Known about the structure:
The protein is α+β, with helices and mostly antiparallel strands. It has helices spanning 7-24, 28-33, 39-47, 66-79, 81-101, 104-115, 231-267, 279-307, 313-337, 348-359, 366-378, and strands at 121-124, 140-144, 147-158, 165-171, 181-187, 193-199, 209-220, 224-225, 269-270, 273-274.
Amino acid sequence: xxxxxxxxxxxxxxxxxxxxxxxxxxxxxxxxxxxxxxxxxxxxxxxxxxxxxxxxxxxxxxxxxxxxxxxxxxxxxxxxxxxxxxxxxxxxxxxxxxxxxxxxxxxxxxxxxxxxxxxxxxxxxxxxxxxxxxxxxxxxxxxxxxxxxxxxxxxxxxxxxxxxxxxxxxxxxxxxxxxxxxxxxxxxxxxxxxxxxxxxxxxxxxxxxxxxxxxxxxxxxxxxxxxxxxxxxxxxxxxxxxxxxxxxxxxxxxxxxxxxxxxxxxxxxxxxxxxxxxxxxxxxxxxxxxxxxxxxxxxxxxxxxxxxxxxxxxxxxxxxxxxxxxxxxxxxxxxxxxxxxxxxxxxxxxxxxxxxxxxxxxxxxxxxxxxxxxxxxxxxxx
Length: 382
Ligand SMILES: Cc1cc2nc3c(=O)[nH]c(=O)nc-3n(C[C@H](O)[C@H](O)[C@H](O)COP(=O)(O)OP(=O)(O)OC[C@H]3O[C@@H](n4cnc5c(N)ncnc54)[C@H](O)[C@@H]3O)c2cc1C
């Protein structure tokens, strides 16, 4: 078994560290404070080729493997996990869904500008009455002549107010059960698609989250992604990939929490010596570092399985479950290590703690991950 990353993957890690230090570090606190989408930063991420790492070069991407994309998300999330999440969501869910399910024309029209970072993507499944229970989706997509007419309200949509390209899910045939949902590519500006309520959040504040309201939103047949009835499969496979990205976001948060805790505990003097020399503090650091390593290997394993065309849904769920719960648990410890200073606005660990919580919720809650894992095992999986 070879645990080494390839030269390209090591280079991507180093390059993203440099990118983060140059372009993200100085604005991370401000974009969090102001809940601001950093348009200029995403333009730069696109220009430098980060927005389409796992997308083939012929469609505007870098043509690298999924693990390389995951390493980029992890490193970016060390500096700003909102930005790391957006990268993961944009390329790992939306870009890859267009790559896997789109036809040639759709790839040229929608995937290329996404992979180049000229457009931003969004993926809207959740509704007020349909969270974990996605079969409760109420949005309908009625086939009328050469068009589909979509009606419904999506909620908690990342990039909802600012996306250029949306993938929207709704029932094309409610009587067909799991085969009745379809996915549609809906460009921004399509009459009948409008962002609704814009949410203010506890963390992940520079990522923009809103409702997306669809009222008699008419899209041509050519905007159907995959075949009619493929919607649930497109959503589920998107989440399988996306969960590896959320695990990577959590690893980035954990690494930042560890780095901050080591630095502070060596500098902070109480009782005449650095607090790092108190066993209570040193053991917290040991626990963060141990779970970080475990989370990283679980996440890389899931990405490696995906890159090697092996089933990876259970491992993706395990990686997300473990990494995100570790991030939520240990960012609280990182604040503890910082004492009162960690609770004050502007302390990086305070932002890390707020940002970690969402990772246990979106792209399937921890409870949903346990359903995926146990379902897989109890059905006789490995
Ligand atoms: C910031 C943010 C960004 C998001 N971005 C997107 C996006 O871009 N696109 C999108 O489609 N969605 C997005 N979501 C939605 C997100 O995926 C859902 O919030 C999540 O799936 C949970 O759904 P819910 O909030 O309705 O909670 P619910 O499903 O109502 O769950 C509430 C609680 O009950 C538990 N629960 C529910 N069912 C069960 C069960 N059967 N067994 C045990 N426990 C259960 C849950 O685990 C949770 O603890 C986003 C959400 C947020 C907050």
